[in-house]
Design brief:
Layout: H1 3-12, H2 23-39, E1 41-45, H3 51-64, H4 71-84, E2 88-94, E3 97-109, E4 114-124, H5 133-147, E5 152-155, H6 162-170
Parallel strand pairs: 4-5
Antiparallel strand pairs: 1-2, 2-3, 3-4
Length: about 190
């Protein structure tokens, strides 16, 4: 079943037009629709076979952050991360079409003397947002970090990215107020 057919099926099931009669019905209605949607989702670790589709997603992710389109550089960057095992990338596919990804980089905490992961990238195609895809990716990243004995996950997001911040808080992430981050540009 192609992604267009899956989307058409979800539209026929009123997935995109939720108009329940009460708050209780709202929760039941949304939960049942998400369960149906989740059935079509496959979350797995990215490999070399994903490079083409992942390049397109990564390019859109960068454009979301006001970077110019650059498919050649995106492909090179993603290919090197996968081949060199510099990062761990999980992808979400619906009927073999990638619709989102999350990328983690391993690091260490000198103070804690333990491994940690930096959640550097999280992206979901616009027409798949607000359907639990990002939540499932976050859940997979959290499980991965715990299974690899990390002391914590870190992330940084834009102050204006309120939807993402809401997701992080909902998942139990804590906004740091005691730390100040500085950056130093090595190139101009």
């Amino acid at each position: 079943m192609g992604i267009e057919r899956v989307q058409a099926r979800l539209i026929r099931m009123n997935f995109f037009e939720l108009r329940p009669k009460s708050i209780f019905c709202d929760a039941v209605h949304i939960t049942s629709r998400l369960k149906i949607y989740y059935r079509y989702m496959n979350i797995r670790k990215a490999d070399n076979m994903d490079t083409t589709q992942l390049t397109l997603l990564f390019n859109q992710y960068r454009m979301f952050y006001h970077q110019p389109q650059d498919l050649q550089s995106c492909k090179s960057f993603i290919s090197r991360r996968i081949e060199n095992k510099d990062s761990t990338i999980f992808v979400v596919s619906i009927d073999s079409q990638l619709v989102g990804f999350i990328q983690l980089y391993a690091s260490f905490s000198s103070v804690a003397m333990e491994k940690l992961y930096i959640l550097n990238d999280l992206f979901v195609l616009e027409n798949h947002r607000q359907k639990g895809v990002a939540t499932k990716l976050m859940q997979r990243a959290e499980e991965f970090a715990k299974n690899n004995q990390a002391c914590r996950l870190l992330l940084e997001t834009n102050k204006g990215n309120l939807f993402a911040q809401k997701l992080y808080v909902k998942r139990g992430w804590i906004k740091e107020f005691n730390s100040i981050y500085f950056t130093y540009k090595c190139r101009k």
